[in-house]
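Q&A log
Question type: sequence-to-structure
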Amino acid sequence: MKKFAFLLFAFIFSFSALATSPKYIKAADLEEENTKKIFLTFDDGPGGKVTEEILNTLKENDVKATFFLIGELVEQHPDLVKRMNDEGHSIGVHTFTHERNKIYRNDASFLEENLKAQKSIENVIGKKVFSLRFPFGSNNSTYTLKKSLVDSLHEQGFRIYDWTVDSTDAINPNLSPNSIIQRSISNSDYIVLLMHCGYSNKNSAKALPSIIKHFKSAGYSFEIIDENTPEIYRLKNKC
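Response status: OK
Response body:
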């Protein structure tokens, strides 16, 4: 096992009007184990039957994933959130409302939204969660990530996670399962895959078994985001 510390800003990905993929990965003291890793991550849940189907697939395949949850929906579906926690999945915050103009009004509004979402999750599972994903990515058509907000989030203990591969199921939830599968496939050794489990993401749930099968056959280990996972974000604005 080889250990090394590094700060890498080198992953370049595609952009969209609705969801901007991160361009760089920020990692420090990453432990290299000569294994291929994938982090399945799902935003915008819990989304009723879609989320339930995704949880069923994960259980059937003995795979753990990470869910970035919207606080309002947590309060509507506490049973699904409890199940995520009980079955060993990782949970993070994804704001309380996911309303673009509200959450990106200013730094204070963004922080308040995520603290409120954090409390909603804590009320269900009995513990605070600190993984955080920005709606539409940390740099998007509404907001450019600033150091001041990063510092404020870090002061509250939050860790920021964008992604390295985008299934694009948010841009078009009606994308065919096969298209979602193809856009999820990558040969990178370190993949953080963005998918969604909202009410409209039925085809994402249908695509998931094949995505899992592909990465299992390719020799990947399935990981969850936790306190030891290096953050992934791009800081464009140094202020």
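Response note: Confidence is low (pLDDT under 50) at residues 1-24, 26-31.
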